[in-house]
Amino acid sequence: MSPEDQIQDQAVPRYSWYALGVLVLVYVLNFIDRNILSILANDIKADLGLTDADLGFLYGTAFGVFYALFGIPLGRLADSWHRVKLMTAGLALWSAMTALSGFAKSGLALGAARIGVGVGEATASPSAYSLISDWFPKKMRGTALAIYSAGLYIGGGVSLLIGGLIVEKWNAAYPNGGPLDLVGWQAAFLAVGVPGLLLAIWVFTLREPIRGRMDGLPEVKNDKPFRGFATELFAVIPPFTFFSAAQRGSGALIVNIVAAVVTAGLAWLIGSLTGNFQQWIALGIGYYAVFSWALSLRHRDLPTFRLIWGSPAFLYTILGYGMVAFASYSVSFWAAPYAERVLGASKSVLGFWIGGGGALGGFLGVIIGGRVSDWLRERNPGGRLMVVAFGVLAPVIPLIFAFTTENVTLFYFLNFVLSLFGSSALGAAAATTQDLVLPRMRGTATATFFLSTTLVGLALGPYMAGQVSTITGSLSTGVLSMLVVAPIGTVLLYLAYRTVPEAERTVVERARAAGEEGI
Q1: DSSP states of 392-442 as a string?
Q2: Residue 244 Cα to chain centre, angstroms
Q3: Percentage helix, strand, coil, to 5, in the chain?
């Protein structure tokens, strides 16, 4: 047996399972802080005078664009620095910004706080994915990443349970505003933000694993980890992107300026057509920044660029899963406002049934999907992509019935089914991206994966559902419009299925051909 095969056959240490449990708690809190806006949406809309499109912007774009952009330099930092320390700092930041959301008196202030939450949360998954890949062998990664990803659905469900109870009890006790003149939705933000500061202390005690050991590859030490972080930051955050491009020559600067002008023009045009400039300007900044970063990465780290942006298999996988995220984020955000506004459910009741059902369905779906994806991969090199494709197609029929029924009990059940089916794809997609790069590239690969889930899924899905709702006056029509992504996702994942096996088999060879040293 080769050294790598011997490592793969070793039993997973108990500490790996313990550490994974702590990371799951972090991810649970991550999505409590991110998703609690859903149960608070109708109250925030009334108090701050917002539209459904504004709510979609706050939930998706304001958070998602900065989550995606800062995920790039922070993902690079996770590839070169102490991942446990990085996650600790990020957890403290996003928890503090969630608490500050409770003092917002306008949509602008709440949007600024949501940006801060996005920046802090951008540290979590690049660090966690890389840590898990060094705590668990390749044959277990789909399962381990699925267990970690279960925190997404548990946190999303718990946020509705907690948020609904806090708002109702606070408003009943203080109908005219409580201490510090806070109303129920503001108190809810404070209640879920403060505990994260305590959890950060626990996370700080985790041990950093040896990078690359589970793959039988030597650890590559980086004596100046923050230099790469600063370089990535300048490559992705406007207007520093122009200085980064100028360092590569006048040609690179011209390309960068043209891209910025074209993106700004398109953003302004679409903003004029929709009447929502903040959405499209923010999204334009995001897409331009990603373009700038990718060109910079090609110049600075050709092997990483080739294995990520130069790999059709990688791009098909993340964009295919992006279609799952597009619909899933829309449903997870709008289900609670829909049940309250259209079906007449109270916050506490819908918080229990939608939150509890969504958490249970998501937990079961992501665990079962991850395990099935590992089982399929042992028999078929592209087997994991079959699970991702299931996540695209299986929710279509339940979604149609859920957002057309007038029976609230049936709506709760179908919400459980949607969560079960939609969540099944995450572990499979995440594990596939990790297998398509070298260990030193995993943080960057994770950040790129989340570019798709955020700039395609989170930043577009909830907003578009809200925009269609605003135009048509029907939240049902808004959510059902998300079905447009099903055929797109199916085609992308078919192409991924055809290309991933060969791409995974040739990772080392392609990295060497691009100039990778030490392998």
Answers
A1: HHTTHHHHHHHTT---HHHHHHHHHHHHHHHHTTHHHHHHHHHHTS-GGGH
A2: 27
A3: 85, 0, 15
Asked whether the bond before 303 is cis by omega within 30 degrees of 0, the reply is no
Q: Report whether 336 contacts 28 (CB < 8 A).
A: no
Query: Quick one: how far is CA 395 from the chain centroid?
Result: 19
What tens digit of pLDDT does each residue of 426-444 get?
889 988 998 899 988 887 8
Q: Give the up-direction half-sphere exposure of residue 304: CA atoms within 13 A in the CB hemisphere.
A: 23
- Euclidean distance between CA atoms 128 and 17, whole angstroms: 13
pLDDT band at 406 (very low <50, low <70, confident <90, very high): very high
Closest CA to 307 of 502, 516, 511: 511
pTM of model > 0.90: no
Give every CB contact of residue 224 below 8 A, 6+ residues apart in sequence: none
Distance of alpha carbon 94 from alpha carbon 108, whole angstroms: 18
Compute the distance between CA of residue 246 and CA of residue 242 in angstroms, rounded to an integer: 6
